[in-house]
Amino acid sequence: MGYKLAGYKELLAVEWNDNAVATFKLNFPGVPVYHGDIAKLSSQECMKLAGVKVGELDILDASPPCQGFSTAGKRKLHDARNSLSMEFARLLRDLQPRAFVMENVTGLIRGHMKQVYLQMVQVLRDCGYKVKGQVLNAMYYDVPQSRQRVIIVGVRNSLSVEPSHPKPQGIPVTVREAIGDLPKTQDASMGHVWVDEWTRRTKWIKYVPAIKQGGHLPCTTQYRRLYWDKPSFTLTRSGLNGMPCYVRNSHIHPSENRALSVREMARLASFPDCFEFTEALTEGNHCIGNSVPPNLMKAIAEHIKENILQATREVA
Prior knowledge:
Elements: H1 2-5, E1 13-15, H2 18-27, E2 33-35, H3 43-50, E3 59-62, H4 84-95, E4 99-105, H5 114-126, E5 129-137, E6 148-156, H6 175-179, H7 196-201, E7 216-217, E8 221-225, E9 250-252, H8 262-268, H9 281-290, H10 294-315
C-alpha cells in the first residue's frame, strides 16, 4: 500500500501466509502473487512472473519474519525464520535491481543479535550494493503509532548515488485525530467490529486507568489503555489475537472498556479506510500487527524515488 501511495507499479508479491495472500488479493487484484515458500522461488521464475530482466527492476523490497529477532520474543540466534533474509539476498544477487529496501525490528541490532545484523549487511554488500541501515520511528511519518523499525536501504554499486533515508516529516498524529471520528456502532462493512469475545472474557479492562498507561493484571497479561492525545503504542501481532490469557501489550480504547476494532487498529497503522480485511477477525488483526505502516513505507518509497532512482537516471 505504501508503494501504491507513492506512485509505484507493483509487479509481484511473494507471500507464504494464506490470510495475508487473501488480504493482498482483495486489495490488489491486478498484482500477481507467488503463494508459497520463497526458498522454492527461483530467480528465473521470479523475473518471469514480474516481467523483468536482470537489472531492470527499480526496487526489491522485503520484510523477513521478525519473530526471531524481536525483543518481545525469545530472540533465538538460530531461529529458522532468521534465514529467510538469505533467500532475499539470493534474489537480490540474481535480479540486480537498482535499489532495495529491507525492514525489520530494532531487536535485530541489539545484544547478541547484532552479529546477525552485521553478517546480513555484509551479505547484502557482497551482492553488489552500497548498504545503509537506520532506525526510523513511524510516528514521525504521519503514522499515529510509535513504532520503531530498522530500515536497510541499498543502492547498486554501479550507480553513483549513496543510500539514504527520509528525514522526519512532522509532529506525531494523536489517537484522537486518527480514530476520534469513528462511529460507536458496529458496521461490519467498514470493519467496525468490536472484539466481543475478548471484551466478554476479560473482567479486568475497567480497572486499567484512563489517565495513565499500563498495569499488570490477572492472567499474567499487561493491558494498556491508549491516550487520546498521544500516538498509539506499537501494535503487535501477539497483542491482537483476541485471547486474553495469551495476550501481551493489549490495547484498550482510550475512554471505553473494550478492545479496539479492526478499523480503529487499521487507522492507527495508517491504512486508508478503503483497505479491506478478510472476515477472519483474528487473522485481520495479525495482518495489521505484522505490517509496515503504509505511510512510513510511502515516505521511504518517495524518498528513494526522488533521491536515488531519479538521480541515477539523470546521471545515466
